[in-house]
Amino acid sequence: MILNHNYLYHNKGVYKCNNKLFYNKIEAIMEANANPHSWIEWDYHDNVFNKSQWNVEPNESLDELYRQRALQLRDAYDHLVLFYSGGVDSWYILNAFIKNNIRLDEIYMYGAFSAEEKMYDKLKFDRSPGYYTREIKHSYPLLKKIAEEKNIKVNLYDWGQDMIDAASERDWFLETGTRYDPTAMARGKFHQVFRHHNEIIHKGKRLAFLFGVDKPRLLRDDNSIYFSFLDIIIPRGALTTSDITGAYWENYEYFYWSPNLPELLIKQSHIITQYLKLTNQLALIPHINDVGKSHGEEYYRAVNFCIYPDWDLNTWQIKKPTSDVDDQVGKWFLDSNSEAVHKWRSSINELERLCGKKWFNKDSVNNGYRGHLSPMYKVADYTLPLG
Fold it and tell me: In the chain, how many domains are there?
């Protein structure tokens, strides 16, 4: 059963400061700045996940839990739209529907397709590292074939010009939550392009957008292994724009990070933990003393091997972004060094001025927001030494 996300508790979590609730981290920061002795907390369905048995591995297989999650969503909505990047997380959502013969209505893909091609030609760019849309194009032929066989509609949104146009809107970041890389300027406006989504809603049907957020974020101390949610991961899928603007009819569903089936995350966490123990690779899990440290590519490769057994590990994927600002998804934009880029840079400098340096990593907006963690949910104790 899908939880009833009401006005006071939407499914992307809320910030709490001075007994006030905020969907927008910027507003929470401004509240904290006005009251120097206050602090901000982030609540990501704490009432659900605190009651979950994280230290007990569910009896169901991982495949069965993927099936249950896909069926849960199918039963709850009339129209399901998968946001598909070509990466492992979104591919496995598609796989869960196809493998179990559960209907998926639409696949939605986005990228600056034409702009990236122009930048390739301009820079004589070596395609081996690739821009973001190479990942999309690599998967598109097979995806199109599957979609035709399963009668799934595929929509492509080329947002390059929309990003350039949005750069002129100086305060665009006020509606993007914790994300302000170049793509954020266009990421929350897709309904202005594909209006048939709104038409479906106006007919009284329930529509949901599915996102592959995210792999388990495991942390460790000197004795135990924990799972913890991180707020700045959330908008790497869906921005919090709909919550901030009050568009509560827009239903965003995280396939993995969902309070509607905690058993899926718990099962994933146990499988990863067991594998890293048996292979003596627990050191891949960041220590809580380095909580700001990113999970490395080796960690993600091990995770993909464990929890996505049908995935071909040799499939080309763009690397995880090393910055919340200068990431690969907006690389074509940054490389263009255009007037739009300078306007975007000016906007995020204004964001730093508005919030204050202390809210950003290393006191700079260019390093992204300091993250807010959920409670630490204990998964297991060590049984093997660290390598």
Answer: 1
